[in-house]
Design a protein that fits this description.
alpha/beta, OB fold (Dihydrolipoamide Acetyltransferase, E2P), Rossmann fold, 2 domains, 29% helix
């Protein structure tokens, strides 16, 4: 029953968010990033840290950092610190707590409900989408960006030694012969993926911000791509729905698809496998991303030679 439930949920373009409040404004975070909601846990300060980094606390024997979103977003709290709630999260292979005024409820939303028209302009770089619900606007934050601003050293996780990159791709010949489509809604992560692919010599890279745009490009007459790298949680069409469509399409099913997401719990991995993803990697394993890109392109190339009759059978 568990496996059946996982498979039937894939491709619906629906996911769930936890809605919380900062001041009088509603915000949201993906349920898959959330582990538990706690009352104020107390905190031990960390010297020379970002003002929003309150310090560290201990939750079930684990030491985790606490980030006050009210301080980070310059929002006046409506409750005292002792009355605050802590949202314990896990993504990008790390656990941390976000301090908020209160937690409301869980909403099931559809990808088409996410509005990104004001992102990066009036709403700034910390907001990815607006969710219109119950006659109000709920803001979905870019938590990956927030964490990296608070702790810039985390950006080092997305770096890879240039010599190692060259070693990994050495059997591919000219990397620019391959067209790669990157599907990622976070501008920060899009740039990081482009940068590391560029270090490997992959400059024939196109980026789009959601699954619907990716699907349209794949269906275009000039949309002949050799590999797709996709996030999961995106507007209009999520990454699992995109992967499912690709693998069900007779003309596209042989294109390798790598799911590259901050959320990689076991059930998410099984969902990726159930729709036919050729690889699934948890951010920030950027080094493993390059390895899988190279391996999948090489495998596709070898299969092509075999089917063309150009490979010796010995």
């Amino acid at each position: 029953m568990r496996e059946d439930r996982i498979i039937t949920e894939v491709g619906t373009n629906e996911w769930q968010v936890v809605v919380f409040t900062l001041g009088d404004q509603g915000f949201a975070i993906n349920v898959d990033k959330t582990r538990e909601i706690l009352r104020w846990t107390g905190v031990r300060p960390v010297p020379q840290s970002h003002p929003a980094m309150l310090g560290i606390t201990t939750v079930r024997g684990e030491v985790i950092p606490l980030i006050d979103l009210r301080i980070y977003l310059n929002i006046t709290p409506t409750v005292s610190k002792e009355q605050s709630k802590v949202i314990v999260t896990e993504f990008n292979q790390m656990k941390l707590g976000f301090v908020v005024d209160g937690v409301e409820r869980i909403y099931r939303i559809h990808s088409e409900e996410l509005d990104a028209t004001l992102t990066g302009t009036f709403l700034g770089e910390n907001v990815l989408y607006v969710i219109k619900r119950d006659d109000r606007n709920i803001l979905l934050l870019d938590f990956e960006r927030i964490v990296q601003v608070v702790n810039p050293q985390l950006a080092d996780q997305y770096q890879m030694d240039s010599a190692k990159i060259q070693s990994v791709i050495s059997e591919l010949g000219d990397p620019d012969q391959y067209r790669i489509l990157v599907v990622e809604d976070s501008p920060l992560i899009r740039k990081m993926i482009q940068d590391v692919l560029g270090k490997g010599g992959f400059h024939n890279v196109e980026v789009v911000s959601h699954g619907k745009a990716a699907w349209d490009r794949l269906c275009d007459e000039d949309g002949a791509f050799d590999l797709v790298i996709t996030d999961i949680e995106m507007p209009k069409m999520d990454g699992l729905s995109l992967t499912k469509r690709i693998k069900e399409d007779e003309c596209l099913r042989n294109i390798p698809v790598i799911v590259f997401s901050s959320i990689m719990a076991d059930d998410i991995k099984r969902k990726a496998q159930s729709v036919g993803a050729d690889g699934h990697i948890t951010k920030p394993e950027i080094e493993q991303l390059i390895v899988q890109v190279s391996e999948l392109l090489k495998s596709r190339e070898d299969k092509g030679r075999k089917y063309d009759g150009t490979t010796s059978l010995g």
